[in-house]
Amino acid sequence: KHQLRANVSSAALPSDLRELLQRRLGDLERQLLSKVAELEDEKSLLHNETSAHRQKTETALNALLERVSELEKGNSAFKSPDEFKVSLPLRTNYLYGKIKKTLPELYAFTVCLWLRSSASPGIGTPFSYAVPGQANEIVLIEWGNNPIELLINDKVAQLPLFISDGKWHHICITWTTRDGMWEAFQDGEKLGTGENLAPWHPIKPGGVLILGQEQDTVGGRFDATQAFVGEMSQFNIWDRVLKAEDIMNIANCSINMPGNIIPWVDNNVDVFGGATKWPVETCEERLLDL
Length: 290
Description:
Blueprint lengths: L1 H9 L4 H58 L11 E5 L7 E4 L8 E9 L7 E8 L2 E9 L5 E5 L2 E5 L8 E9 L4 E6 L2 E6 L13 E4 L18 E9 L5 H8 L17 E4 L3 E4 L3 H6 L2
Antiparallel strand pairs: 1-12, 1-14, 2-11, 2-13, 3-8, 3-12, 4-5, 4-11, 5-6, 6-7, 8-9, 9-10
């Protein structure tokens, strides 16, 4: 500015023109300084807004992380993480539950669950376990007018269970690869036993465990005619054959014994397609329903 004024002063210009130019230069200088001050204010505001926004984002993220942490610790929407049931009210190919955990290699197992269904004909598929190369690794199904069947590695045993009366029933199935021996319990009583069901076949690990649908491929290709309709709870799996005494005690509510490989807990069961989770009746209330 000073240089410019000096140049103007040294020029042979009439004094009134020189004054006019100096006034103009003074105005320009003030405008520039004003603009610089505005930009500085905007920069400061922007920084404050960015900081506030960052803080807000961090607060929201921290709240989400705390919720995830709660869920991982097993905190549940239910009174206790196991006090819920899965409801599958329609015979469709899109309502189902999925167990997040998979199975290890098994040479024996016990599966127990409470279920209630009045579906006809047949209650459908309470659960299925599929692995690559074998969609029917373990399946419990009552399809059409057939008896309830247990499939292991696509081999079939018919089970003498009768559970489509709309009341709660406690069901347990045991199996061992040794001679393919199986047992079927209803409401604590052993109603059937047999052998030669996929003998010496180990249950393959790493598959998908679905509640309410029969899988034709791993995790999918459901058929509405084979869907389970009703409610289920306390689906537990152990890696051994439970004693008949233990099964009776679970069924009559004397003991609560979670599965050692698949326990029934809220954060291990996802539901899809309109399937829902609800607080379940107490064990004693289910027992009175028999």
